[in-house]
Amino acid sequence: ATMIMRTSLAVCALASGAAAFSSTGGSLRPQTSLGVASSPPATASSSSATGDAEWTPSSWKNAVAKQMPVYEDEAELEEAVATLNGVAPLVFAGEVRSLHEKLARVSQGQGFVLMGGDCAESFKEFHVNHIRDSFRVIMQMALVMTFGSAMPVVKIGRMAGQFAKPRSAPDEVKDGVSLPSYRGDNVNREDFTPEARRNDPFLMVKAYYQCAQTLNILRAFSTGGFADISRLHAWNLDFVEGTEEASRYRKLAAKVDESLRFMKAIGVDTGSKELTTVDFYTAHECLLLPYEQALTRQDSTTGKWYDCSAHMLWVGERTRDLDGAH
Q: Hey, which of 168, 214, 260, 285 would disulfide with 160, CB 3.0 to 4.6 Å?
């Protein structure tokens, strides 16, 4: 039950995709080869909002950055960022381009997007079982959506980076005591003490290594056999056993099983990559800019810049000013 409360699962069906699905009576549009631009054309201006001639990962410093923690020791911050500059990227440019292509197809009505995960990750709740349960909830929902719509579903986990939290006020007051607001485990700690609420830049480094472990686990689940569609009965969660929802899922799973048996009988390879593995992507809010700067890398193949902290990042309501740093 705790996991249900922590896991906010949102089905994001793009408007054009939903309209296309309904207007075609549920039939799938033929796929097309879509060229997806990873960055503006070379002829377009790539300057920042402040008018810099050439963009760099640190260009954000030339604009106003909202919702950013104040670090009391600049040298400590620079050391933490230097450490992150030297670590391996969490995701790779080719994976990001693959997601770009799939999102482009969704925008043309050729699929749906399913995103799920935590409101905010934490260090103390990190466990392989939590990651597994979030993963199989998403897999279960994606199966239902795919079976019902006869369209592909792009699966994105709000995890492996969703630590930072925007705040309504920079400080929190309790019993007349004012301390910096808790901004997420990669900034400070939740306990209401001066030591815990100190903004510690090395928590970004700790968060990076937890993200690396999370991605390792997700890649193992998505390609190591757990995502095999023949194991769809194993995706059911223990806490829904005996419920009406579990009963409906078992009926659906039985239909899929029947289809798989038929495919196997007529010679279709049900052990192929398409039926035994899934493409699973990660996403988080682009909020803590020193961390994102350090993990922004130049692709050796194309020469383009990618934020390699996740496959997809978004800018939240409180930081989306067009002339702002984010």
A: 214
Distance CA 235, CA 245 (A): 13
Q: How far apart are CA 294 and CA 78, in angstroms?
A: 10
Alpha-carbon span 216 to 41, nearest angstrom = 34
CB contact at 8 A, 84 and 204:
yes
Rounded CA-CA distance 162/223 in Å is 23
DSSP secondary structure code for residue 64 in this structure: B
Alpha helices in 173-311 (DSSP H): 202-223, 244-265, 273-276, 289-294
Instruction: Let me know: does 67 contact 318? Beta carbons within 8 Å.
Output: yes
- Contact criterion met (CB below 8 Å) for 200 and 117: no
Interval 204-222: pLDDT, tens: 999 999 999 999 999 999 9
The rounded distance, in Å, linking the Cα atoms of 135 and 201 is 30
* Mean of pLDDT over the chain: 84
Query: If you ran DSSP here, which 8-state letter would residue 113 be given?
Result: E
Contact between residue 229 and residue 268 where contact means Cβ atoms under 8 Å apart: no
Q: In which element (H, E) is residue 145 found?
A: helix 128-149
Residue type, 164: A
Closest CA to 316 of 126, 168, 121: 168
- The encoded tokens of residue 72 equal 């009391």
More confident residue, 83 or 140: 83
Nearest-CA neighbor of 152 among 160, 161, 143?
Answer: 143
